[in-house]
Design goal:
- With about 200 residues, this protein is an alpha+beta fold.
- It folds into 3 domains: about 5-60, OB fold (Dihydrolipoamide Acetyltransferase, E2P), CATH 2.40.50.140; about 65-135, DNA polymerase, domain 1, CATH 1.10.150.20; about 155-200, Helicase, Ruva Protein, domain 3 (Orthogonal Bundle).
- It is about 45% helix and about 20% strand.
- It has 9 helices and 5 strands; from the N terminus they run E-E-E-H-E-E-H-H-H-H-H-H-H-H.
- The protein has helices spanning about 30-35, 65-75, 80-90, 95-100, 105-110, 115-135, 155-165, 170-180, 190-200, and strands at about 5-10, 15-20, 25-30, 45-50, 55-60.
- The protein has a 5-stranded mixed barrel with strand order 1-2-3-5-4.
- Helix 2 packs across helix 3, helix 7 (about 155-165) crosses helix 8 (about 170-180) and helix 8 crosses helix 9 (about 190-200).
- The protein is globular and about 45 Å long.
Length: about 200
């Protein structure tokens, strides 16, 4: 298993980065927030997990081992694969996902594109006790508000939202609501979380 990669960033996409490791460019799937935090040309270290399928080998990368562990844990639930697990971490922080599961917060879980009410109930049923055993405090109502900042990066956020399954119009409306709420976040990851919260209202 490839547990981590470290090296210069050759390319940054919406939901992936290419990291050079020993002269080889490794295509690593990430959340939009993680990709946005990887400066092209700079060196990055990502915790990774390799998903092996009969027809493919796919590498997923995370800012730390906590997110990687949660990515692997949620896939123990029937019907949750790597793409849905990554979508959960795109919408919520690792703590946000764990708190939603521990508190049975179906509204927070169904904010993730691809998770309906039945899917959210199954995730809570199968993982709640395991999450509570880790000492996670239940929290109802989703993750904490994003940090406010200055000029938003609306175009990148729009692409990220569409990539997560929202329509272009829904993405535009969410971006406008974030802007209308006051000074918008300056970082893509913070702006994206704020827009996702608007979409979940």
């Amino acid at each position: 298993m490839i547990a981590s990669v470290r090296g210069p960033v050759l390319h940054v996409g919406l939901d992936h980065v290419v990291v050079e490791v020993g002269g080889v460019g490794m295509h690593v799937h990430t959340t939009p927030a993680t990709a946005a935090g990887c400066p092209r040309g700079g060196e990055v270290t990502l915790a990774t997990t390799l998903v092996v399928r009969e027809e493919s080998l796919t590498l997923y990368g995370f800012e730390g081992t906590e997110a990687r562990a949660l990515f692997e844990q949620v896939q123990t639930v029937s019907g949750v694969g790597p793409r849905l697990a990554l979508a959960m971490l795109s919408v919520h922080s690792p703590d946000g996902v764990r708190q939603a599961i521990a508190g049975g917060d179906l509204a927070a879980l169904t904010k993730v594109p691809g998770i309906g009410k039945k899917g959210a109930e199954r995730i809570v049923l199968e993982l709640k006790d395991k999450i509570l055993a880790m000492g996670v405090e239940p929290s109802i109502g989703g993750s904490a508000p994003a940090t406010a900042g200055g000029d938003p990066l609306g175009g990148q956020v729009h692409e990220a939202l569409v990539g997560l399954g929202w329509s272009g119009r829904q993405a535009d409306d969410a971006i406008e609501r974030v802007r209308a709420a006051g000074s918008a976040p300056t970082a893509v990851s913070e702006f994206l979380r704020a827009a996702l919260r608007e979409l979940g209202r």
